[in-house]
Specification:
Alpha-Beta Plaits; FAD/NAD(P)-binding domain; about 30% helix; 5 domains; 26 strands; seven-stranded antiparallel beta sheet; alpha+beta
Length: about 550
């Protein structure tokens, strides 16, 4: 209960709705996720528990159980070693499952034995089963469930030679035990951070500069009682300081900024050497957070820079995340931007790898994401200038003007439209791909829908008599073709619509017209037109969703090629 009171238990939505497939062929949907604030597991393991309840029959009773099960949270979040749990709906045989991550296989075994006694009271005899798999993180299991193997501790050493006639390159790898390996691959995505080896192979310029400010991280024990469930922030003349009760080596984590002589080739974005305990105490003292430090358990310097690579791609090599752009931590945009890079590139590599080269599709990654990186960098640079810059104007604003405005901030932050505007700004609504080579707006334009290159906004939608939301409809992997009620649909134009193919077609009720919109797997509109004709098929071929051979089958003899 203490963890609940201190708000150290969370219910994230990232995995909710995901369908998991188990070894016996059954499937179940994740309806809840529960995590706790704790350091990363040292000895990770995965625990799977399965059981079938007595007396639970029918849809309403299952829904009631799933809602009531939230009350069971205090029974497990306080167990030693608990990290997270995915709650799964019942499968076709009525079996419920829980997928846990634990720190320590023996601790997981002890929890499972305790849980067994509780489950026996309401479960069908003989239906309770559990399995502990040591050495795995939960996300490793989820990746393998989708057919992806994650190899840890493998170092990328470089490429050998040029791409072969089949378009393959040979990557040189070194495993954690020193074993060398040559791996043939179609593409290489460099997600290897600000000191990227892949970026050097691409030959990309690293445009930008170091910041004359560095971040200091420290895990500390406080001598002053601060409320643990909130983030304590101070913005003053000297810079920025945070204190929050999520330390790994101690109860509290400090993040502060200070002016620094940054080496031009320092380990940017990485943990550097520690700082003296007295320096940590000075930063907290001058921040005026009202806290004192009893003990400094750990500290590190983090040199910062603002840079964007040019270009993000050369041949089969791509740059993703921090390998492509480096930001200050202001606004928390670095990880967001890296995830959006991965989502943008992932669906393009998936379609390109399954067919023709699709050169224009692959070129669009650099067009779209490099422009977005510059926009996000401008935003974070502006925020960081105000928060931490040693510039006299910024110091004047923080040290003299901000104290006069501070009494107004609580009232402003209680206004929902103000906080909503701030959250919306950090969700990057300014990022669009309207100038991309794969964004096509055909005549007559379907002006009721967003322009190609814009995000598809969420809205109510009715399909086949079932009411839902557009974002729910387009959440499944693939390209989603949205047809207005009177729009014709030629299966040949859509590549025959194989059951497991990348194209999913939905006819919307309540959107009068004959138009069509194609939504990309990343949620952006790729094509729109007020009439449904061969131009939709041309766009699907452009992005590799329909084989290029389909074009030749539909063209009359001697027709000009594109």
């Amino acid at each position: 209960m203490v963890m609940l009171v201190r708000r150290r238990v969370h219910l994230p939505r990232g995995q909710v709705g995901r369908v998991l497939r188990f070894a016996d062929g059954s499937t179940a949907r994740v309806y809840r996720e529960t995590t706790v604030d704790r350091r990363p597991p040292v000895d990770p393991c995965v625990l799977v528990v399965a059981f079938r309840l007595r007396l639970i029959r029918g849809r309403r009773m299952h829904r009631a159980f799933e809602a009531e099960s939230l009350l069971n949270t205090p029974l497990f979040v306080g167990f030693p070693g608990y990290v997270s749990k995915l709650w799964c709906t019942h499968d076709g045989s009525g079996v419920y499952r829980g997928l846990y991550e634990w720190d320590g296989p023996q601790l997981a075994q002890q929890y499972a034995a305790s849980l067994w006694r509780v489950l026996e009271l309401g479960s069908v005899p003989g239906s309770i089963r559990y399995q502990v798999v040591p050495g795995l993180h939960r996300d490793d299991v989820l990746a393998r469930e989708r057919g992806v193997d994650v190899e840890w501790g493998v170092e990328f050493l470089g490429l050998d030679g040029l791409p072969s006639e089949e378009g393959m390159v040979s990557a040189r790898l070194r495993a954690a035990d020193g074993t060398a390996e040559q791996l043939p691959c179609r593409f290489v995505a460099g997600c290897d951070g600000q000191s990227s080896s892949v970026r050097r192979l691409v030959g990309a310029e690293w445009c930008g500069a170091p910041y004359p400010v560095e971040a200091i991280l420290a895990d500390v024990e406080l001598g002053t009682a601060l409320e643990p469930g909130v983030l304590h922030v101070a913005v003053g003349d000297a810079g920025l300081a945070f204190l929050f009760a999520l330390g790994e080596g101690a109860s509290w984590r400090m993040l502060a900024t200070r002016p620094a002589d940054v080496p031009p080739h320092g380990p940017f974005g990485q943990l550097g050497e520690g700082v003296p305990p007295e320096e940590v105490r000075r930063l907290i003292r001058e921040s005026r957070l009202g806290a004192t430090i009893d003990d400094v358990r750990w500290s590190a310097r983090v040199p910062l820079q603002h840079r964007v690579a040019k270009p993000f791609r050369r041949g089969p090599l791509f740059l993703v995340g921090d390998a492509a752009h480096a930001h200050s931590p202001a606004g928390g945009q670095g990880m967001n931007n890296g995830i959006l890079d991965a989502v943008n590139l992932g669906w393009k590599l998936g379609l390109a790898a399954s067919g023709d080269a699709h050169e224009r599709l692959l070129e669009s990654y650099d067009q779209e994401r490099r422009r977005a990186a510059h926009q996000v960098l401008a935003l974070t640079h502006l925020i960081f200038f105000g928060e931490a810059s040693a510039n006299p104007a910024a110091r004047l604003a923080r040290g003299v003007l901000l104290p006069y405005a501070a009494p107004l901030l609580p009232g402003l932050l209680r206004r929902r439209h103000v906080t909503a505007a701030g959250v919306r700004l950090l969700s990057q609504p300014f990022v669009h791909y309207r100038n991309s080579s794969i964004s096509r707006d055909a005549e007559p334009r379907a002006t009721r829908w967003p322009r190609p290159g814009n995000r598809l906004p969420d809205a109510p939608a009715t399909i086949g008599g079932r009411r839902g939301r557009l974002h729910e409809l387009t959440a499944a992997p693939g390209i989603h073709v949205l047809l207005e009620p009177d729009a014709p649909c030629d299966p040949g134009m859509l590549g025959g619509q194989a059951p497991n193919g990348p194209v999913r077609v939905h006819r919307l009720v309540g959107h009068p017209g004959r138009g069509v919109v194609a939504v990309r797997p990343d949620g952006y509109v790729g094509f729109r037109c007020g009439e449904t004709d061969d131009r939709l098929g041309d766009w699907l071929r452009l992005v590799g969703a329909v084989p290029s051979a389909m074009r030749d089958l539909r063209r009359p003899p001697n027709a000009p090629q594109e």
